[in-house]
Amino acid sequence: MFNQRAGVFNLGCEGIMAMGAFLGFLAPHLLAGAGYGAWANLAGLALAVGAGVLMGLLFGLVTVSFGAPQGIAGIGLQMLGWGLAGTIFRRFIGGVTGVEGIAAWPVPGLSRLPWVGEILFSLTPLAYLAFLMVPASWWLLYRTPWGLRVRAVGTHPRAADTMGISVVRVRYQALMLGGAMAGLGGAYLSLCQAKMFADDLVAGRGFIAVALVYFGRWTPWGILGGALLFSLAQALQLAIQVAGIQFPYEFAVMLPYVLVIVVLALARRSRMLGPAALGKPYDRERRV
Amino acid sequence: MTRRFRLLYAGGVTALAGAAAVGLAAAVLLSIGASPLASFTVILTGPLQDLFGASEVLVRAVPLILVGLGIAISFRSGILNIGAEGQMLVGILCSTAVALALPHWPKAALLPLSLLAGALGGAAWGGIAGVLRARLDVNEILSTVMLNYVAAQLYTFFLRGPMIDPEELMTGSGTPQSMRLVKAAWLDRLVPGTRVHAGLLLALALAGLVWVLLWRTTFGYRMRAAGAGRKAARYAGIQVERSLVSAMLFAGGFAGLAGAVEVAGVHHRAIEAITSGYGFSGIVVALFGGLHPAGIVPAAVFFGLLLVGADMTQRSAGVPANMILVLQGVIILAIVSAKQFLDNPYAMERAARLLRRLGLRGAPPPADAAGEP
Description:
The complex is a heterodimer. Chain A is built from twelve helices and two strands, in the order ααααβαβααααααα. Chain A has helices at residues 2-5, 13-31, 38-65, 70-92, 116-121, 125-143, 145-155, 157-162, 167-194, 205-215, 220-243, 249-266, and strands at residues 105-106, 122-123. In chain A, helix 2 packs parallel to helix 4, helix 3 runs antiparallel to helix 9 and helix 10 packs across helix 11. The radius of gyration of chain A is 20 Å and the shape is globular. Chain B has 15 helices and no strands. Chain B has helices spanning 3-31, 36-45, 51-76, 84-101, 107-136, 140-160, 166-171, 199-216, 218-228, 230-235, 240-267, 278-288, 293-316, 323-343, 345-357. In chain B, 52% of the residues are buried. The chains are: A mainly alpha, B mainly alpha.
């Protein structure tokens, strides 16, 4: 979201998540027997975030500094991240191996509440962090000078430039922050959810995240709503598989993706609210 | 700006982009403990050591040409089609279904019919994204990516369910693949002992046709105009939405045909993982070929070489074939960056200014120097 608010359309998310997922998995995998426990997980997270920042920088170099079309560049970044994760994985690990991952942290007391306890209060620390990020991003975006700059740069870069805001710098910052978050998101998949790594672990979630930004009308709360809707579809899909209902499971797996398309089609009316300069490279010397 | 400087500039940017791409790829190879030089040598020369390797390059080039042509049409019309992978799969399903349903038809009717079915299936799948874009303004990159995942599930559903080879069920192995097609649905082999098939000729002929379509017909002109400048095109009375949809129909059709040709020419049945990333490589091929048929054909052969070479490095140098994805990603990033520098007159001025500041002779004065106060 920070990316798009700053006027950069980062389709490379998918690739960053793949790298994050892989690196998040790599550290605990390598350190597994050495008895470092939680530190190994932390190292994995740090690696994932670092890789996300680096890839955000690379994307910034290509799209912000060079002004390349963001759509195609994003596909390039996606292939790069995907291929890199897969290459290193094949070369050094090869087969399917699990890691202990990050265990759930039940909140004492609250997690024993009937019904909601297990769902809401026995998540992994990363999940709590993700939910905390929603109000935090809201605050960052709407209540800090930096947030105002980001929004200005995404809406009217020329005006922002005139006011002395460095469009390039803000876009770089936003890309790095977005990259870090995408890396973290990838690490969540490998460390908390799957507790392993596979080539197709991310399975389009990077693109779905981009789609959710549209659906969420570029606001943190809207994105949270979209994310919940999407995970509901995924939970439904798992439920259908587990229940063994006479329903080809391939169609169940399709469900979330179809939902995203439908949601995108419905979200069209809210387009007006989007950052006006989304996807447009800014070049100070180029007359419009 | 002198002509000589312009050429120098173009050459310099291209060389820099190429060097950056090679450097990044080499860094990745080094980081996994492989020798970049040895790996590059295997990739580029390995396949050309014998007839079979060289023929495999051409076999891989066929779907790349077809997918690349389709993607070039869509990119030229201003719509970014990332869905060739899914369109190929739907094309494969349709053409296989036709070939399996009419086993007693003569070759002259069955083969064209099944290829046509593949193209139509792919076109329909691509058309969904086109209509969504034109009617509801749904971002086509996202919709085509999502449709890829949907198509992949649809594909495994058919191969495991309605279309599975009865033999697989009898032996109980349950490999998701269709029955072998009757010989009447096969494309002829061109060179005995290799897998080079008549699809190559078809692909080359279609490359010519696409050139005619895009540069020698009003229809193609309209599509290119809609892609070059939407507002200007609309002002000129071109129905941009219609161009977008027809571009996606063509792009999907070509991808679907690529899938059908792959079945009829190489595998003779629908199997799992049949597209082997051609849908994505086709994007790189189209960009590498300058979105022009005359560039796409050699680009496809070059990437066919890379793909076969990557398989060889896996066997000889222990470099995973996934490396080819890294290479493709790097190439895309390098191409789009370089292109930006080549198309942007301001960038060239800046370069000229920089060269002058560095005290290099031969760099012409900036064009706007005289005009500015």
